[in-house]
Design goal:
Elements (H helix, E strand, L loop, with lengths): L32 E2 L12 E3 L9 E2 L6 E5 L12 H13 L4 E4 L11 H17 L7 E4 L5 H13 L4 E4 L13 H12 L4 E5 L11 H7 L5 E6 L4 H11 L12 E4 L5 H6 L4 E3 L7 H12 L3 H34 L14 H18 L4
Parallel strand pairs: 4-5, 4-11, 5-6, 6-7, 7-8, 8-9, 9-10, 10-11
Antiparallel strand pairs: 1-2, 2-3
Helix pairs in contact: 1-2, 2-3, 3-4, 5-6, 8-9, 9-10
């Protein structure tokens, strides 16, 4: 598909990386094919698929471009049913802020609390809201991780049918002690072989029993024609640097190979960009998307001193989101933007004193957000 498929393995790695011996990847064709370009300024080739996301006609996967992607929150009514109206409106708010795309079914989207049908409803609602408001060009990334290869592939198929363009996939972890050294590599190869949409590897050790994919493993997997990116929530910027260099990752300045090497948190957005990464997928973007996007814009304009000052504020705001979790993020949205609501049980309800604390913790970044156009 692109030059990153010929990248050589990255160099050194840390001891906490999951080390897997080199595995020969079978050069199978991707389940999607290249097609015509979009009119985006960053313009890698989009991919066409044989099944429609919303009807029975062929669809075009929206190109990924460097920037900020937001793992959107799933909103619920008081009875814990999905609040589809708010889900759609929130997606449009993010799009208007200038994000490069939206991810559904992530940890911020409470994917582990949703049925397959509800996952499809969230993604379909997001896609349709974007289309209806002039943002049909924005890609939707869908979390498709599961414990079995079979169900992961099924989730990828459902993601396409619901309007998703890419699948974000965690490694399986429940039977971690039974994994052989190359189990994880085989898992990603098998999923990528069968998925009708391209795969983004999701490295998030805290969510998968400490499994931490090394730069060598991710770089080797990047050669698969249907694996087009990675998200590194591990926060290891050394690993990110190695992968970005080895894959010739896309950046705001250069489309490179079109492989997307993404940080997993807004508190190292500038660091990601400086070492050649593609951007971030960040939860604080639900609260302050303009602030997150502004860091990328300042970096691209060469205004590093301003970008650094903004990064400091965003990092403090991101820590509020990390410490408060999804309930804190929803509380901040309620306080400052008039919507947010509850998380599904067994996540707790926010008390008045907790809501006041979250209001204080998010105050600085929200005040910044409201000054940005």
């Amino acid at each position: 598909m692109s030059s990153h498929k010929n990248a050589s393995p990255a160099g050194s790695h840390t001891q906490d990386d999951l080390q897997v011996p080199p595995v020969s990847l079978v050069a199978l064709p991707a389940k999607v094919t290249d097609s015509s370009s979009s009119d985006s300024s960053y313009n890698p080739s989009p991919r066409s698929a044989s099944v429609s996301s919303l009807d029975d006609t062929p669809i075009m996967n929206k190109p990924l471009r460097p920037g900020v992607y937001v793992p959107s929150v799933a909103f619920f009514r008081e009875n814990e049913d999905l609040d589809l109206d708010t889900i759609g409106k929130h997606a449009v708010r993010l799009a208007k802020a200038g994000v490069a795309g939206i991810a559904t079914q992530g940890s911020n989207g409470e994917a582990v609390h949703l049925t397959h049908q509800e996952r499809q409803q969230v993604t379909r609602t997001t896609r349709m809201a974007l289309n209806e408001n002039g943002f049909d060009f924005l890609p939707v990334i869908v979390g498709c991780g599961s414990q079995s290869t079979r169900e992961t592939i099924e989730l990828c198929q459902e993601a396409l049918a619901s309007g998703g363009d890419y699948a974000l996939v965690l490694p399986p972890s429940y039977y971690k002690p039974s994994h052989k050294p190359d189990t994880i590599v085989e898992f990603f190869r098998d999923v990528a072989d069968a998925s009708p949409i391209p795969i983004i590897i999701y490295n998030y050790p805290a969510a998968v029993a400490g499994i931490d994919l090394s730069s060598d493993v991710i770089t080797e997997l990047s050669k698969h024609p249907n694996i087009v990116g990675c998200k590194l929530t591990c926060g290891n910027t050394g690993k990110l640097t190695r992968i970005a260099a080895a894959t010739n990752a896309a950046s705001p300045a250069d489309a490179g190979s079109d492989f997307m090497c993404l940080g997993g948190s807004a508190d190292f957005t500038l660091q990601t960009l400086i070492v050649g990464g593609s951007g971030v997928i960040c939860g604080i973007g639900n609260v302050a998307p303009k602030a997150c996007v502004k860091i990328v814009d300042l970096f691209a304009a060469g205004r590093l001193a301003e970008a650094k000052k903004l990064q400091v504020i965003v990092a403090r705001g991101d820590w509020a989101a990390i410490a408060g979790g999804i309930v804190g993020t929803k509380s901040a949205l309620d306080t400052y933007f008039g919507y947010g609501g509850i998380a599904r049980r067994p996540l707790p309800r926010v008390t008045k004193s907790e809501a006041a604390k979250f209001e204080r913790d998010f105050k600085e970044i929200v005040e910044l957000e409201k000054t940005l156009k």
